[in-house]
Amino acid sequence: MPRALLLLLLPAAALAFPDGAPIDVCVKARRNQPHHGQARPRVDAPPYSVTASADTYSPGDKISVVITSLDGTPFRGFFMQARDAASDEWLGAFEAAENINLLPECSSITHADNKDKLQATLIWTAPAQGMGNVYFTGAVVQQYDTFWADLVAEVARAVRQ
Description:
By secondary structure, the protein is mainly beta. It is built from 1 helix and 11 strands, in the order αβββββββββββ. The chain has one helix at 3-14, and strands spanning 48-52, 56-57, 62-69, 77-84, 93-94, 100-103, 108-111, 119-125, 132-143, 146-152, 154-155.
């Protein structure tokens, strides 16, 4: 490949998926992993936390899922999905919000811009029928080739005094 062409392609690779994960991420073999060329997920502890307000639901319940920088390191993207804890099937729906793209086909949500973020609050709504346990899993992207995958939200528990 000529060097000039390679240099022209590099900026395009760096800007890929600025408006979030494509719908086919829901059915890719590497679940919860961005498909960013040859880049693979980091295996060290992420500088981000993912916290859910609950892990049980009743019809129509709303659960918040918050992605937060632990040390001021911004992130540029995310992909989160809700799954039934018993069947591992997609479950419920996230609510639309500013700078968010929904992937309702697989109960998922992703970023809508690649601007630096220190926090993102996502609201999930339980299905109209049924009750049970849910978990939230996905990925947080610091940069195109720096991301953590298969993160599972911790559930915020009230501290008893």
